[in-house]
Design a protein that fits this description.
Layout lengths: L12 H14 L1 H7 L4 H18 L1 H4 L3 H19 L8 H11 L5 H17 L7 H12 L6 H15 L18 H4 L5 H7 L4 H14 L3
Protein name: Phytoene synthase
InterPro entries: Isoprenoid_synthase_dom_sf, Squ/phyt_synthse
Organism: Hyphomonas jannaschiana VP2
Length: 219
């Protein structure tokens, strides 16, 4: 078990807004879903998705495996330091994560598995190995400590990710209704219908589709 995190200066509203804007730009699907979470959990989801982006984009930022491994190790050590109660590193996403760890909404150990997963996918040069399901499981557990949708997440997350990457046209598994408590973590899976039929939907279609998932639980 890690130590209690040291007190750190919270990010300003403008710094949080900058992170939020970044997530909206690079991961609009999850960003829209997260808008339906309560304010505190919404902020934690923003920090989580910002970390996922930092890890996912290593494959775009470097061409040599060694340089990529250095970046993953940086994040691994940064999360270890948060778990040990050390001050956060001077990176806006790391500082955001520190706030959410201190508040008890995010766990360094769970995020370490994200690092491991993205690193494995990077080394294998196989995006199908990216930890899409684990990312969604963290997000869902952040919203509700207990739910009965973990198996469905493991089934549908890879299908959604493959559709989003245009690697398949298969809709993927049909799943039972999502519990209301965790819908802001997975409502974007409803976009599978659009990705499978016509490719990436426009912003209005995304919002309407995700809203329907929030209301009905059907993804």
């Amino acid at each position: 078990m890690g130590s209690m995190p040291n007190t750190t200066n919270p990010l300003s509203k403008s710094q949080w807004a900058a992170i939020d804007k970044r997530v909206r730009k690079v991961d609009e699907d999850r960003w829209i879903s997260s808008r339906y979470a309560p304010a505190a959990q919404r902020q934690a989801l923003t920090a989580l998705y910002a970390l996922a982006y930092e890890l996912a984009r290593v494959r775009l930022a470097v061409s040599e495996e060694t340089l990529g491994l250095i970046r993953f190790q940086w994040w691994r050590e940064a999360l270890n330091e948060l778990d040990e109660g050390k001050p956060a590193r001077e990176h806006d996403v790391c500082l955001a994560l520190a706030e959410e760890v201190a508040a008890g909404r995010l766990k360094p150990g769970a995020m370490q598995r994200l690092v491991d997963g993205y690193e494995a996918a990077f080394v294998a040069q196989d995006r199908s190995q990216e930890p899409e399901a684990w990312l969604a499981l963290i997000a869902a557990s952040l919203l509700a400590s207990h739910h009965d949708w973990a198996e469905e997440i493991r089934d549908v997350a890879p299908a959604y990710a493959a559709l989003r990457r245009s690697e398949t046209k298969a809709f993927g598994p049909h799943v039972k209704s999502v519990p209301k408590s965790i819908r802001p973590a997975v409502a974007h899976y409803r976009l599978r219908k659009h990705y499978s039929e016509k490719g990436e939907p426009n912003a209005v279609t995304k919002r309407l589709s995700i809203l329907k998932a929030i209301r009905t639980g059907q993804v």
